[in-house]
């Protein structure tokens, strides 16, 4: 069986390397991008099985990339795990506010993990999401 | 409480009758037969109420009223007037007599006048107590408010700090994980990367603590008249090796005969150190390049300002979004190395001087920061 492909989007180089190293040593294929814009491009080109997405990044942040993913029929079914220093209630509030303006509401992510990264929890969430 | 009353009348009969009557009402009564003696008694006994005839030989009642009111405006003075003294009575009211009663003195009217005087005294006491209370309350509330505002500011800084430290801790954990995998799998690349992550983040903690130490320095400026090129020269000496290490030409263009001006040399040194350091580190983010790396520091005197410093690099430059967020505390473009405090502090120091800081930047051409300092810092 081919390795599952996971796209990591984070502006911190150390974080990108940490997460990709974690994924690779657990049997996944990992690729990483540094902002929402390049992340979205990569998602279109590569069709990953899962996306791990940071929120606060310079340029196009994670929320923008997330709502673009979820409103694009070609990408909407790729599960997303948010991994951010932003507290989960703040993100959910933000999403709810966004949804009041959007014609097409954006669903919740597959999982939400707060930084600092707990790698056991991230692996659990990945397994639950894509096996 | 027994109140003291001073009774002034040149007619002994009236003094005697009123003395008995007032004593019966419960007052401690002092009497005087003319204005001069009344003033002496007033000083000696400090009565809260003075009851005085208006027409007396020597110093009359009006003059006595004026003196008493000027010495102690809170004394209640009731004037006793004869028939046809209406003009004098009105004069006395203009001089803030509490009341006037006419001779022959009617007991009920006197009692009524005294009661009014008492009420006024009582009211004044309460008002004073209330005002004092109010002042105390205002003081208490103000200090509470100040304290909570201070705490709110501290809270904001603490929240940002906590975020920064959390990121460093996360990256350290990442470095340790990657190192661990490197050891386990005997993977050379993981070992090298993990080691870099740990080292980079330890440096970051060190920088953060130094920045925090300097963060408070913009608060109180130590203004002196000095040569503006002195702090700049120190910065350049300190950073030349760093520039050479990175293969960057660090050049200066200094206007000749720049006059001395008034500024805080230590905090301006920190600002310049920050800007030049940032300019040097701007190149770290870019890969290969065709043009020679260069940082130029200029010092000159623009019209209307004492001195200006401009620090330019021909590095990768910034996009608009990054530029807009530059001065908003704790925002860093430097990944593991930056703490994001430097520019916020620099801006604050410059603004404390009454100066300006400007940034010009575009992707591909580089960045220029310019600080202008005024002739007369606030």
Task: State the major sheet of chain A.
Answer: 5 strands, parallel
CATH topology of the largest domain in chain B: Heat Shock Protein 90
- Determine the most extensive contact between two protein chains: A-B, 18 and 25 residues
Mean pLDDT of chain A: 90
Largest sheet strand order of chain B: 2-1-3-4-5
List the strand order in the largest sheet of chain A. 2-1-3-4-5
| Number of discrete helical segments of chain B | 10
The CATH architecture name of the largest domain in chain B reads 2-Layer Sandwich
Share of residues in strands of chain B? 15-25%
User: What does the oligomeric state look like here?
Assistant: heterodimer
Overview features:
heterodimer; A: 131 residues; alpha/beta; Rossmann fold; five-stranded parallel beta sheet; 18% strand; globular; B: 378 residues; Heat Shock Protein 90; five-stranded mixed beta sheet
Description:
The complex is a heterodimer of chains A (131) and B (378). By secondary structure, chain A is of the alpha/beta class. Chain A has helices spanning 13-24, 36-46, 62-71, 88-101, 119-130, and strands at residues 5-9, 29-33, 50-53, 80-84, 111-114. Chain A has one domain: 3-Layer(aba) Sandwich (Rossmann fold). In chain A, strand 3, helix 3 (62-71) and strand 4 form a beta-alpha-beta unit. In chain A, helix 2 (36-46) runs parallel beside helix 3 (62-71). The mean pLDDT of chain A is 90. Chain B is built from 10 helices and 12 strands. Chain B has 3 domains: 4-105, Rossmann fold (3-Layer(aba) Sandwich); 145-197; 219-373, 2-Layer Sandwich (Heat Shock Protein 90), CATH 3.30.565.10. With 378 residues, chain B is an alpha/beta fold. The mean pLDDT of chain B is 85. Helix content of chain B is 54%, strand content 17%. Chain B is elongated and about 120 Å long. In chain B, helix 5 runs antiparallel to helix 6 (188-215) and helix 8 (265-282) packs antiparallel against helix 10 (342-352). Chain A binds chain B through residues 11-15, 17-19, 21-22, 25, 58-59, 85, 115-117, 119, and chain B through 163, 166-167, 169-171, 173-175, 177-178, 181, 185, 190, 193, 197, 200-201, 319, 321-322, 325, 333, 335-336.
